[in-house]
Structure formats: structure tokens, C-alpha cells
Amino acid sequence: MLRSVTILLIEDDPLIQKMYKNAFKFEGYDMLTANDGLEGIELAKSKKPSIILLDIMMPKLNGLDALKILKSDPDTKDIPVVMLTNLADEHDAEGALSKGALKYIVKSEHDPKEIIDVVKDVVAKNG
Amino acid sequence: MGIKIKTQLIVLLSFIVVFTGVFYVARTIFLREYLELEQKFFLLNVGRLESLLEEYAIYLQGITVDYAYWDDSYEFINNPTQEFIESSLGDNAFVSNRFSYLLYQDLEGDVVYEKYFDIISETVQTTPASLKNEVTRITPEETVTGYVVVDNKTYLISKSKVRDSSGESDPNGYLSFVQLVDKYVIDRIESTVKYPVVILNEFVPPKSFETLSTEDSVFVVLTDNEHKKAVLPMPQLLASQSPYIVLSYPREIYQQGNETIQAFGYALLAIFAIMNLPGFLTLEYIVIRPITRLGESVSKITASKTMTIRLPVDGPNEIKRLAHQINLLLDQISILKKEDESNEAELTYNLKQLETKNSELTQTKQAILNVLDDAKALEIDLRTERDRAQAILSSMGEALVVLDRSLRVVVINPTAEKLLGVTAKDILGVSWREVVSVYVGGEIVQEIQGSFAKSAKSHKTVVTRIEDNHYYKTKSGKFFPVVSVTTPIEGLGAVKVFKDATEEIHKRETIERLVKERTSELVKAKDEISKGWIVQQREKAKLTASINAMDMGYIMTDEKLNVTLTNKAVSQLLGDPTKKEWTKEELKDAFGDQLDIVKLLTNAMVNKSELGVSEVAVKDLFLRLFINPISMSVENNDTIGVVMLMEDITQAKQLEASKDEFFAVASHELRTPLTTIRGNASLIKDHYASTLADPIINEMIQDIYDSSVRLIGLVNEYLGVSRLEQGRLSFSLAKTAVKKSIEEAVNEVTVQAEEKKLTLKIDDIENDLSVNADQSKLKEVLINLLGNAIKYTDKGTVTIGATRINDTVEFYVTDSGIGISPQKVPLLFKKFQQAGEKVLTRDTKRSTGLGLYISKKLVEGMAGSMYLKSTEYGRGSTFAFSLPIVI
Lengths: 127, 887
Prior knowledge:
Oligomer: heterodimer
Largest sheet of chain A: 5 strands, parallel
Distance between the termini of chain B: 61 Å
Largest sheet of chain B: 8 strands, antiparallel
Low-confidence stretches of chain B: 834-846
Mean pLDDT of chain A: 86
Helix content of chain B: 40-55%
Radius of gyration of chain A: 13 Å
């Protein structure tokens, strides 16, 4: 039932990308990936994913700016965004949550399956 | 509720219950019989209707077969002639048989001859296409008959193969006869079955319905109070849609049954009523009435309060006896009451006498008490006055004596006793000259020339000063200078207040000597100042040069904060490099709204204390300020001005900021590869553990996973420390519930404790206890303390709790672990120290040792303090910290 869910991961590190892609594949989910903020916004607009996982430190357009654009565009403003980053600074977290991110998750503190649980939870609530 | 109503109710209720029961049982039994009877007749009529419909069909089929097996018909299909129709199937034949339609077809089904006849107007008309289609379509094996709906009309159709009369030849076609089932037919049916019928072209049964079956068909029964309706399908023709016929059977039998039952009910009601009436009347007249009467009489007696009325003695035996007994009782009460009344009158009289006497006595007593009170008040006033005078005399620092007109001592205060070395008891009434001898300038003075005598004579106050050189010599030989004031008391004598003047004389001598010394010093100093001025000028030049060479800004003011000296750096730092001199107002403007510099300097002046401002932004620079008041010298700390130093800390701040950014980026870059290691190890564990044959590989992967998690922890702690040390951590302090914070922290470490089989215990905590803290940081500290306690404990219990101590709340975590050796205690809260072991033999499972350091800093950031509360090496420790309470 959840298998028709589309997840968009915006993340510049190829190894992290690969890891999450594999992790979600084990659970039967397809995952779209974008390598930077600009590419991420394009994909979000064209594919209308069910949820966006968004990194912060990225080339071209960083995650916080990308979040601001996603949340101000009527096409994408209703897509739930979960920040998935390795920046553990409280100011970044508060900034992201005030700009409309649903959650702020520090990658290194969680196993991939915990991220999957969060995604399931968010999709079920927004579904 | 009276007994009468109760009885009536009970009788009525039992009557209703019995009647209802009997009626319903009877009704059920009777009605069942009637319903069975009704059903029997209903089925009989349905059967009659069915056979009637069948009969019509059989009749038409008979006619059809007759014509079809007739040689002329056989001939007619081969050679259709008008003569045959006119002779055998003319209009008369149609009218008498009520035929609507005749159709001859050959074996292929093509029409050989057809005729449609309207029996009402008795004319031949064009065949309706749908009827023709329906009839043409039917291909019987031999002969078929049935009812059909076409164009909302019901027809009875019969169709047969046409053969010659021998019946042995092959058929050469088909013959069909059709009758319209019209009102005429329905009237005939109704007159036969005696009940109304209706034909329906189609029928949809309601949601709930009952079905019944006869030998021939199954039909639907619809029942209401008036009718029982049978809806049956009419005999069908092959697969055509057949119409339904509805028979309305009036429920006369059922209604008759109901009426009978009703009549039975009324009869039953009448019988019950008649049977109950005598019993009811008996109860009413023999029991209830007498009892009610008795009750009313007793109430009357009670209401009148006279004991003269007696109850009527009648009614049944029991009630008669009761009334008699009550009357006897009333007689006795009357006798007793009379005795009481006479006693009471006597008592009342005596009591009144007593009361009068008592009130007289009370008045007398009050008058005496008033007089006593006045006397007492007067005595208290006097005593107070005396005590006050005594107190003034006793507390006086000066000696005081009062002499009468014969110059004998009347009063002496404790100071005078002490000074003269006597006691009041010994000298009261003794002549003053026997107590002291008076000397002026070394010569003894006669009594007649003394102050008392002078004062008494002149009626004026006499004052003796130090200059007058008065001395007293006491009996014990004590000799001392005296100053005194003597005032006459008209008609009594005089009072003298006096004092030992030894100390004052000494002070005066000292001052005189000092004045002499200072004067000679001043004369000397005047000479030296003219020499020293040249030296001072040289020193000042040196000082100015070194001040000007400083990087720091240097500002000196006088005691009115007017700027007396600045160096070049001041102009550089305040953003106006060419400016030579600064005034107080210009300085104030230079610092702008950021900081009221004049107020700050004033504070330093007034409070005579050093002040510092760690950081202030002026133009593009960040400055640090040090302010010092200038004192005259070490002995004399009167402030004569202020010195302010300004240090440029812009570069240091930039360095700090870039260091901070470096830490953020570095920890991010470290975490990213660690995330991949941790994540992939976790995925292998979750998804491939079962496929790996060798358990060692699983173990290795677990080790990789554990190590990466630990390394992530390390990175986090280092970053935490760097933030703490830069003071970059911001605290959002708010009212935080103690109990909830502790419970959340305990939740986080439950798994850890379970792994080591330790008991985690929360002591009782007051429900509404709250502290001023940053909720997440408080939790971090609690988790850290709990985590440490679990780590260093191998068995037993870890206890956490919090109690109020004055204006703070103390949180504590107690373990039953290894404890801390005395030499390690001082290292506890230092960076990178683990009290449990030496650096080189660190247990790899344990942390960086930064935890306690971080926790202490966090607590201090929330205006609290952390400490080791108690420890016993080998038995366990208690760590505690306190935070300000919020009420």
C-alpha cells in the first residue's frame, strides 16, 4: 500500500546517496536522488514526490535556501520536508524548522532503518 | 402515603398483573386457531385462481390443436385461400372465441396468413408489430400455451405445429391463436374466485416478504391488517416474460378472531372486578377505616395538648383493645402532669427571688472593681514615671548628683558612684564636702565658694570648663580634673552634672603639638617643592612618551572626568586618527549608544573599583576596556581621576569565529563518512546477517558498527567542548518540570541499564517542583550522569532523585559502583579525565572523559553548580548539581 510512495533525496555525497537508496530498496521503496539544491527543486516540481529528504551543506544551492524556495512555491509547498544532515548546530535546526521543515535529523545519530520509520510515519500522516 | 392508598394500589396492581397474564395467554391460543383457519381458506382461494388460469390456457390450447390437426388447415398452408378463412375463421369465430389474433406460418416461420381483430369494435386492424414479433418468435416442439406481456398488455397465446388429421405426416407450418386478457376476462376471474384480482406486468418484491407454495407454483404473500395478498406468476410461455396476478384476500376471519378476543377480554375484566370488590370493601370497612379514625383521634389529642379527650372504643377487637390501652396511658399522663404543674409554680417564684438578689450583688461587685481598676492604673502611671527617671539617670554617661539646701547628697547616679568610688547607700544624706574635696589650680576651695553654693546663691547655672582647672579628690585619694554644670532647683537644692576631664585635656595637648609639627614641616616642604618641580617635569615627559608608544588606547581624567591625557592610539581606535585631543563629550559620542562611557567612568570613580568591559563594538572594531580609579596614595584612597585602557580585540574575535566555523565544518566532514560506515554496517546486520555463514564476520560487522557509533560520539563531544569553551552555546532558560525531565532522562538509559542487569530507581519527587533551566541541556546532563553511573556500576542499583534545598533544587544520581579513590577526586571535573583508570589502560568501551566536564559547564551556564556529593571507594558515589528553583 505504501509502495507507490515516491521519496526524493537531495544529497551531494554519493556514498550517502547510495546507502539510503539501498536501505529504501530493501523495504521496497523507489527513491529519486538529486545532487544539489537546484537539481532537487527541479525534481520536486516535476515529480511531485510524497516526501523530500533534504541535506544542508551542498554545492550550488544549500539546503536551507532550497527549503525556503520549496516552501514558497505553490507547486511544492505542501510536500513534507525532513532535513537530513550532518550539521548538528542548534541554530541550523531552529532555522530549518521555522522555515517549514517537519523534522530535523542528524544523519550520523541514526541507523537507516530509523530514517525509514520516520518516512513511513510522515507519509502515513500526510497521506 | 396512607395505608388506604397503599392497599388500594396493591389490590389494583395485582389485579392488572393477573388480568394481563390471563388475557394474553388466552389471546395467543385463540388467535392461533383463527390464523390457521385464515391460512387454509387463503390457500384454497389461491389454488382456485391457479386452476382457473390453467383452465383458460388449456381451453385455448384445445381450440388451437383442433385447428392445427385439421386437414383444411394443412391444405391452407400449402395453398392459402380466402374461402377457407371466410368459412372457418370468419369474424364470428373471432367474436365467439374472443380471439384477438390469428397467425399461420410455414415451417421456415414466414407468415402465410394473419388477422388482428379488435373485439370491442369488432373490426379487423393492422397487427401491432411487437405482438407479431412475439408470436412469430415462438417455435414449439409441438404445442405451447401461456400468458405473455407485450406492450403492457397481457395476452394468452397458444401455438401449435400444423399436421394433417392422420397425425402421421410431417408438419408443414404453425398455427397461433391469441386472446387479450382484458377487463372482461378479469371480471370473469373475479366472479369465479369471489375476490378482487389485479394483473401486474412486472413485480418487484418488497425488502422483506413471505413466500408460500402450492402444488403448481411458488408465490409471494404480502400481509397487512386488512388484506392478505398473493402475488403469483401466471403460467408461462416458453422463456417469455410472464405477467403476475394479485389476489386480495380480505382478512375477515382474522378480524373476527380479534373481535372475539376483545369481547372475551371485556368479559374477563368484568369477572375480575366483581370478584375483587367484596374483598376490597371488607378491607376498607373492617380494617382501614377504624385504623384511620384511631390515627385521627390520636393526632387531635396531640394537637390540643389537653389530656381530657379520650379515643372512641369501637371497631374490630384488636383495634378496640389498642384504643382502650391508649386511653389508660392518657389517664396516667394526666395525673403526672398535674403534679408537675404545682411544683413548677413554686420553683419559678424562688428563682425570681434569687435572680433579683444576684443582679444587685453583681452591680455592687462591678462598682468595687471599677474603683480598684482606677487605683491600679494610677499606680502603674506613677511606677512608669519613676522607672523612666531611674532609667535616664542610670543610662547617663555623665555623673549626676542632687544636693539639698544643706548641701547633703539626695540623689546619685551609677556613673557618679563609679567615678567617685562610693555607693549610694553609704553617702545618701552625707555632706558633699565629705564625699569630695575641690581644688582650683592646686588650692583647696571652701564649701562656700563651690559651684553648688554659687549656683544656689545666684539662682543661675554655673559651668566649669577645662580652662577653669577644677579638680576633685575623693576619699580614696583619687585626684582628677573635672568639668561640670550645676543648676539650682528652686526650694530643693541643686543638681550637678560632671565628668572626668583627663582624656579631653590629653586630646587638646596632642592637637596643639601636631599643629606645631605640621607648621614646621610646611615651612620645610615649601623649600623642597621648588626643587622637585623640575624632577617631576622630567618624569612626566618619560611617562607621556611611553604612553604614546602603546598599542592600547590610554585615557586619563581628573576627578570631574575631564580628559587630561590621551595617547595616539585612542584616536586610531575611535576612528578619527588625526584628532589630537578629546573631551568628555566627544568620548561619549564616539562610543555612541552602545555604551554610556561617562556613566561607566563615574561608577568607577564613585565606587573606587576597577571595571572592565569585555567587548564593545565601536565603528568597525571590537574593543575591550579596562577602567581604574586613581588614588592619591596607598594610605589615602581619595579618588582624583580615572584611567581607561582600550584594547583592540577585533582580530582575536575574527580568529575565534573562524575557529568556530572550522569546528562546524570539520565535524560535519568527519560525520559524513562515519554515517556511511555506520549506515552500511547496520544495513548488512539487518539484511545479510542470516546469509553470512561465518559468525565471525557477523561479529566483525557488529564491531565496525559499534566503533563507528562510538567515533560519532567522540566527534560530538569534541564539538560540544569547543562550543562550550567559546561560550557559543546559547541557553534558553524557562520554567522546567523536574519530575518530567528526570523521567525522560531515565527512559533514555533504560536499555543500557537492562543490558547490565542494573535496577534503575527514581526517588519520590514533589509533583510541582520546577527549575529555571534549558530543558534539553538539563536532560543532557541527567543522561550523562545516569550513563556514567551505569558504566561504572557492575551490579546493584542506580538511583536518581531531586529535592528542594532553600532556593535551589538539588538533583542527585547515586550508584553502587566502584567509587572514586581520594587522589582522583580533584581530577573529576577536569577535561579528559576519567577517574576510573589510568590513561594508558583506558577501557575502550568507555567514553572520552569529557562528559562530566561538559555537564559541569552546562550546569554552570544555567546558573547552577555541580559537585561530587559523596563517594566511598569500592562502594559507590553520589554526583549532584543544583539549579535555581522556580515557584
